[in-house]
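FAQ

Q: What does a record look like?
A: Structure on top, sequence underneath. For example:
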């Protein structure tokens, strides 16, 4: 902690920020000059900087008024995402940074030029501080012949290594860890290699990985049928002339993201060569085994994503931002922000505890305008990214502290009561946001895409047959606002709650095409929120360690942290409360103080499902699974997520043989032994929580082992 300030000056909800929270704020969000001297004196000064910068978008005679309102919202629980907190109003010191968290690459063309062009764009995007996602299944499989090169390709996974190294280099230079998502179609011939790739020490560690799972594949799994692995036929190859396009054992016709240079049918589908046929259930078991042991790949139900997309009439989404809460089209960008739900809990931990819905909705309303203003100061480095965000004005408002708020309201995460609360929070946020969208549209104008005219196509009528009932036919012209507000599946739900709102949005157009998204909010929750629970999650534990990257330190540092609800309970109810006390004793925590390990995987899915109905983008959610959780019970969790209508699902099971997580419990470290081989060949075995002197520094055994195994030792 810097000696220039004191944690005692940084209070939220009358509870002193713990040292880890202050330290994260200081390292990540506190504005400093070129010499590293603080400009923000405390968290409230950071709020003042951000409020002033975002109010600067307003008309001159309204800036003072909106600065005050934005500052009130920030002090009341509105927390813009990290790029906004760090970079808004910081132009004098870091003019080349962006306020945008989420981006997706343009289509990676299946050529060396196409691959390297997108590497360059990725480097510029990461340098600006944005996360980025890509689909890599547009690249031909390993061993396929490349006519122009007269050689066989090494496949998409080898090219992903280039992106991985670029991200590591750029993030190392900029002092902030880069974030990437690589998505991959479940029907690609290299899908098995993609699933296994992270089993290699140190490989693709700058990536989160997710499979694009289709309804067709889920059906094949349930029916235990064959699953062909395919890629578009290259008509330039001599062997293509011998393939019968009508033979289903050789060719499968599929919708593809790019038809240029490929053989297509009258439906616009691409002829895809069958490389291999496997049992869908066998591939499913491989996916689940990898997820069980290595926590990846994640699971994106891509058909559901596109079905529920508000811009269904124009976009074909194939990738997401690094944490999956923003499915985006080519060059798509989105900014984020979260509302701290603990700020609205009154009389916590008592029989009279309640949630202040009136103040919550007021904060959401002002926060909606605040986030919309971020579009104007986006700072995105690529022209196509700037065009996309200005045309659609996407933002993703979510919440954090859900698990902490439930505990303060004496609810158990995953209970029926908690599901009702989760749905109501999500629904109120959505309705308030879209009402504010209409008001902003009347004042400032709608998103440009919603003022455009679109031609009705055969594909459009196939996706929305109700348009036929309304008299539309192929070739008709229809306004974007109508396609958005009347025919998107999500906005139809808004219309059932407020028909007049939906009618006006169809007539006038919304200020933005997307409003809600729930991000993981890791460092925002820990720093500004004083370690309230992340996003939609329960608290990981009430006392645990966080492994953080420190510049100039050779391994990650283990930082001691406590949950916000524990600190609040000690402050307001029982100063002698003890997390180690036996249940039922005087200083034991109440039974509603549960954590991620107390919650069944299906309960995680249930909470996500309760929220997803009212979230128009997606949700970053991890179902934490105990290390000893049986695989047979684990492997059906993704099918359950599909049944619940989710857009995606991710699980995490602590597996010390595979990796060291960001969040770690003392008992896991204590019970895990690590073996080190000395220069003379001697082996020593130590517990993960033991400290080791090595190379002039002190490290925990777990972090040192992980750094050496993964190859990042001394490279931060």
């Amino acid at each position: 902690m810097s000696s220039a300030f004191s944690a005692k000056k940084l209070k939220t909800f009358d509870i002193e920020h713990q040292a880890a929270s202050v330290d994260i704020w200081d390292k990540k969000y506190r504005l400093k000059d070129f010499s590293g001297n603080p400009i923000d004196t405390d968290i409230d000064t950071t709020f003042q900087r951000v409020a002033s910068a975002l109010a600067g978008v307003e008309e001159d005679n309204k800036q003072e008024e909106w600065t005050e309102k934005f500052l009130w919202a920030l002090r009341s629980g509105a927390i813009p995402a990290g790029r906004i907190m760090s970079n808004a109003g910081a132009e004098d010191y870091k003019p080349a940074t962006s306020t945008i968290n989420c981006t997706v690459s343009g289509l990676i063309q299946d050529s060396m030029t196409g691959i390297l062009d997108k590497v360059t764009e990725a480097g510029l995007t990461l340098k600006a501080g944005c996360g980025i996602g890509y689909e890599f299944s547009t690249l031909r499989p390993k061993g396929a012949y490349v006519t122009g090169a007269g050689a066989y390709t090494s496949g998409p996974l080898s090219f992903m290594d280039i992106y991985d190294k670029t991200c590591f280099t750029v993030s190392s230079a900029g002092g902030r860890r880069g974030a990437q998502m690589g998505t991959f179609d479940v029907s690609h011939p290299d899908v098995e290699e993609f699933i296994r790739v992270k089993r290699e020490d140190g490989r693709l560690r700058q990536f989160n990985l997710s499979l694009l799972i289709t309804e067709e594949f889920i059906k094949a799994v349930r029916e235990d049928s064959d699953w062909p692995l395919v890629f578009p036929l290259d008509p330039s190859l001599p062997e293509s002339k011998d393939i019968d396009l009508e033979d289903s054992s050789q060719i499968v016709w599929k919708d593809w993201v790019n038809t240029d240079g490929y053989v297509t049918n009258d439906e616009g589908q691409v002829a895809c060569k069958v490389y291999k046929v496997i049992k869908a259930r066998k591939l499913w078991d491989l996916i689940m085994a990898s997820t069980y042991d290595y926590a990846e790949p994640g699971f994106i139900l891509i058909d559901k994503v596109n079905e529920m997309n508000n811009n269904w009439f124009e976009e074909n989404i194939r990738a997401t931002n690094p944490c999956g809460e923003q499915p985006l089209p080519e060059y798509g960008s989105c900014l984020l922000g979260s509302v701290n739900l603990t700020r609205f809990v009154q009389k916590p931990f008592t029989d009279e505890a309640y949630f202040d819905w009136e103040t919550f909705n007021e904060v959401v309303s002002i926060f909606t305008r605040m986030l919309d203003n971020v579009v104007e100061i986006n700072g995105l480095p690529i022209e196509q990214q700037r065009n996309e965000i200005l045309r659609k004005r996407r933002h993703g408002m979510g919440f954090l502290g859900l698990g902490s708020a439930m505990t303060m309201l004496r609810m158990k995460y995953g209970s029926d009561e908690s599901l009702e609360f989760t749905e109501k929070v999500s629904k109120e946020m959505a309705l308030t946001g879209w009402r504010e969208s209409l008001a902003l549209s009347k004042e400032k104008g709608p998103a440009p895409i919603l003022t455009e005219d679109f031609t009705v196509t055969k594909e459009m009528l196939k996706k929305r047959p109700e348009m036929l009932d309304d008299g539309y036919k192929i070739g008709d012209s229809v306004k974007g606002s109508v396609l958005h507000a009347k025919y998107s599946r999500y906005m139809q739900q808004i219309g059932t709650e407020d028909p007049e709102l939906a009618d006006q949005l169809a007539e006038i157009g919304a200020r933005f095409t997307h409003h809600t998204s729930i991000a993981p909010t890791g460092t925002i929750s820990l720093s500004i929120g004083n370690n309230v629970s992340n996003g939609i999650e329960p608290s990981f534990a009430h006392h645990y360690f966080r492994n953080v990257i420190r510049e100039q330190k050779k391994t990650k540092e283990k930082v001691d942290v406590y949950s916000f609800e524990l600190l609040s309970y000690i402050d307001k109810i029982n100063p002698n409360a003890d997390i180690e006390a036996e249940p039922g004793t005087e200083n034991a925590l109440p039974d509603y103080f549960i954590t991620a390990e107390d919650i069944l995987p299906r309960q995680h899915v249930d909470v996500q499902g309760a929220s997803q109905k009212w979230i128009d983008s997606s949700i970053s959610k991890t179902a934490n699974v105990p290390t000893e959780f049986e695989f047979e019970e684990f492997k059906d969790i993704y099918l359950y997520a599909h049944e619940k209508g989710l857009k995606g699902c991710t699980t995490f099971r602590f597996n010390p043989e595979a990796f060291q997580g960001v969040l770690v419990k003392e008992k896991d470290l204590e019970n895990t032994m690590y073996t080190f081989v000395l220069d003379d060949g001697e082996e020593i075995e130590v517990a993960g929580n033991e400290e080791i002197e090595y190379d002039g520094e002190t490290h925990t055994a777990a972090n040192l082992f992980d750094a050496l195994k993964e190859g990042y030792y001394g490279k931060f």
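Q: Is there anything notable about this one?
A: The chain is about 35% helix and 20% strand.
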